[in-house]
Amino acid sequence: MVMAPKALRLPLYEKIARKNTTQRAFDITLLFLLFSLLFYRLLSLKNHGFVWLLAFLCESWFTFHWFIIVSCKWNPVEIKTYPENLEQRFPELSSVDMFVTTVDPVLEPPILTVNTVLSLLAVDYPADKLACYLSDDGCSPLTFYSLVEASKFAKLWVPFCKKYKIQVRAPFRYFLDDPISSINANSEFRQDWKKMKAEYEHLSLKIEEAGRKSVPCDLTGDFAVFSNVEHSNHPTIIKIIGEKTPSFPDDDDVPHLVYISREKRPKQPHHFKAGAMNVLSRVSGLMTNAPFMLNVDCDMFANNPQVIRQAICQLLGSEGEREIGFVQFPQCFYDGPKDDPYGNQLVVLIEHVGRGIAGLQGPCYSGTGCFHRRKVIYGAWPDNAENQGKNHTSINGKLDDYELLKEFGKSKEFSESASYALKGKKDFPRNLSDSLEAAFQVAGCSYEFGTSWGTKVGWMYGSMTEDVLTGLSIHKKGWKSTFPMPDPPAFLGCAPSGGPVALTQRKRWATGLLEIIVSKNSPISAALFGKLQFRMFLFYIWLLSWAISSIPELCYASLPAYCIIANSHFLPKVNDPAILLPVAIFVIYNLLTLREYLKTGMSIRAWWNNIRMGRIIATSAYLFGALSVVLKLLRLSDIVFEVTPKDQSNSDDDETNGTTRFTFDASPIFVPGTTLLLVHLTALVALSLGLRPLVHDGGQGAGVGEVLSSLWVVLCFLPFLKGLFKRGKYGIPSSTIFKSTSLALVSVYFCSISWDQCLYS
């Protein structure tokens, strides 16, 4: 069929620059004030001691960070897609393999995983062009049982969604509303809706009852392979739950569904999520070998049924498919606690920094809600003359069989499929069942030995944040990425709830990001020896240095208390005109960030929650992330991957008077924050009792600025102050209070030594 020239010219997507004049003016003003403060510090450094130097170093770091943020936000863009033009440009739509990953059926309830799978199976895209693969790293019979039962429900759910053009296709969210009460609902829809709801409630009940048993079902038949298996010691399990046969391509109108639990052995490295993703890419490469791959976490369901069409528009709409390496949709959350009390919904970060880097080389890969080109994951460089020599996996097929086997492993079947993908060919001729033997081979824990998996091919190894490392390696080759923000959001997930979970997640992020910056795969080498653009290099430096920022954050937060106890000062005196510099910086920064939150529809309370959580996270989670990497580099301790618990329901137990109460546990992650708070309280009490003088004019002791700064720190750590006087999960455990009190006493003692030395000098 010859396509009309007019159809070839139809746009699939476009980048639209957004006006940013006012934002730029505020950002530049603040940057100018920061540089002015540094200049003032530098000029007056010889007249002050160590405290002034420490303040200068901390403020230099903050200025550097703000400079990078201004650079990232400078050119915001909006991505607009035209999915209605897709089939006119490409009558034969491309295939997509969809990956869902889960680890622990307790921390990640199977009903959440099932809803994510169902939402993907029901997207608005031809079923024969889709295949869904679930990776179960927990090797749980409960997860497999839930998936089998969900596949039966999918045969009813998918046609129902497509028949009535349902918008939200995750059943647990769809059935929260009652559309049949609408006057416009016809009798057929009412009947089908009631039937579907009853079927879903039956499915949920079966999964819930199975979860209460020690063994969810009889381990016979397809379930026999789960007999006597252990979480970290079991063979490969691959089950084709639903397969569309060529004879009946439209049977049930449900995509392929495959369950995978890769082989694990106690002494064999499994590389966490990156290893699971590489197994998924190999198994899917043997079975369906779609040119595009989507990966989502088990709690991140497809909220927009057009999401695949929107992503394909960007992947096929770039220049000869030589520009866009991956399409990253933002992480959005449903039913998050009101006013973002734990600062983990990242709404403003996505809106301002996310849109800004979308105007550069594109966003980093964030591990979920991302569409990849298979050939890019297999190591391909953008197709141009300059890179053909560097492209170790040439899409022209110049690699011989030996080189392919060396790169991709000993499976000839998989090497053939990889060559097929790298050449950009479609319609991979193979049935799923015919590939099972080879699939078991490539899912083995020893398959990657001696290959390029995890170093040059696939998801990269060497960091807890394998997603960012993989995205960096793609950007290094010159590929770009896009950051569409459709309405409604493409994917929705559940944000961590509770202080311990939120801080543990941030600690894991900080740890993995710092691992990258101290490795050979750092953005420095990507900028010097690769094709990472300079401003993208700055963005990666800002992102990967979150853990490092804990040191200047903690030092600067400690300065007010130290100055009060040691009778020193780190701010200009009230009668010094230079005091206007830190005051102006403080006021403008807070007004600027408040403006950003209000513009995105967030409340003033949400702004304040994020301000204080920024200080809490930086001085606790990021600090422990930095410590973890240091211990790893010194070979004193290994880094442990901590799974973030997923919670389907949002309990109101933590809410009082419309605000969410902060929760604690006995984790040492709360010790630095509690210690910092106790030191400031001690300093303020000493000042109020007259044990330390307050200098009102040109003296050298602590002044009003130090006192107000100390009160500001206490205000930021107000949840910890309340936690000192509460019990249960809302109170700081006595063990943490004891450790923090001991550290605080030691800190106050050393500060007092400085004061005594001043008295007798």
How many β-strand stretches? Answer: 15
End-to-end Cα distance: 93 Å
The low-confidence parts are: 384-398
Total helical elements: 28
Mean pLDDT, rounded to whole units? Answer: 88
β-strand percent reads: 5-15%
Strand order of the largest sheet: 5-6-4-3-7-11-9-12
The class by helix and strand makeup works out as alpha/beta
Task: Write down the oligomeric state.
Answer: single chain
Helix percentage range? 40-55%
Rg from Cα = 28 Å
Shape: globular
Largest sheet: 8 strands, mixed
Question: How would you describe this structure to a colleague?
Answer:
The structure is a single chain. By secondary structure, the protein is α/β, with parallel strands linked by helices. It contains 28 helices and 15 strands. The strands form four sheets. Strands 5-6-4-3-7-11-9-12 form an eight-stranded mixed β-sheet, with helices on both faces. Strands 8-13-10 form a three-stranded mixed β-sheet. It has a two-stranded antiparallel ribbon with strand order 1-2. Helix 9 crosses helix 15 (412-422) and helix 14 crosses helix 15 (412-422). The longest helix has 27 residues, at 734-760. The radius of gyration is 28 Å and the shape is globular.
